[in-house]
Design goal:
heterodimer; A: 117 residues; seven-stranded mixed sheet; 0% helix; B: mainly beta; six-stranded mixed sheet; three-stranded antiparallel sheet
Chain lengths: 117, 110
């Protein structure tokens, strides 16, 4: 069974850092691009970042460029999102997603990040 | 990277057909046949319903269909059922390996 399990969310103060992890299973992780998508409370979905199969290409939404870093460890079937200089507006559920055919196919259950003083 | 525009809400009676529009620009929806649609029930992760504009993943009901005209994509739900009540989001490829989602539409089954 294909499964994505996020972890690492929590409460952090503005300006702080947090690292999200996503454990993948049930498919050949190293053969797929991976993405992070977030959803602020009561709001819509927002694509955050993509990473190529081998980690050689990374792309970000403008609002997180220079603050967030997507990475992966194919040996551990894991995806990461390092979030620095966090802002109140980064408060959201963060989903780990496997894209396919330029669509977001398999979703994790999400991990909540709350940025508040 | 502005969000695609969707109506805030759409409603219909059981058995009816409804359509949800998704308006973008010539840089995203109008430039690529890569619009996808997602269904999200409260407290749940989104589910892919349509990809590449009009293709259905395995397991998605034939009652869901997608189309596009110019800078506007549409999702049609035919034979509306109570279980279709949810939030729906469109998403388009926007070039340079980036994506943009729509503002979301709440579908109510009367």
């Amino acid at each position: 069974e294909v499964q994505l399990v996020e972890s690492g969310g929590g409460l952090v103060q503005p300006g702080g850092s947090l690292r999200l992890s996503c454990a993948a299973s049930g498919f050949t992780f190293s053969s797929y691009w991976m993405s992070w998508v977030r959803q602020a409370p009561g709001k819509g979905l927002e694509w955050v970042a993509n990473i190529k199969e081998d980690g050689s290409e990374k792309y970000y939404v403008d609002s997180v460029k220079g603050r967030f870093t997507i990475s992966r460890d194919n040996a551990k079937n894991s995806l990461y999102l390092q979030m620095n200089s966090l802002r109140v507006e980064d408060t959201a559920v963060y989903y780990c997603v496997t894209p396919a055919n330029d669509a977001f196919d398999i979703w994790g259950q999400g991990t909540m990040v709350t940025v508040s003083s | 990277q502005s969000a695609l525009t969707q109506p805030a809400s759409v409603s219909g009676s059981p058995g009816q057909s409804i359509s949800i529009s998704c308006t973008g620009t010539s840089s995203d929806v109008g430039n690529y046949d890569l619009v996808s649609w997602y269904q999200q029930h409260p407290g749940k992760a989104p589910k892919l319903m349509i990809y590449e504009g009009s293709k259905r993943p395995s397991g998605v009901s034939y009652r869901f269909s997608g189309s596009k005209s110019g800078n506007t994509a549409s999702l049609t739900i035919s034979g509306l059922q109570a279980e279709d009540e949810a939030d729906y989001y469109c998403c388009s490829y926007a070039g340079s390996s980036t994506y943009v989602f729509g503002t979301g539409t709440k579908v109510t089954v009367l």
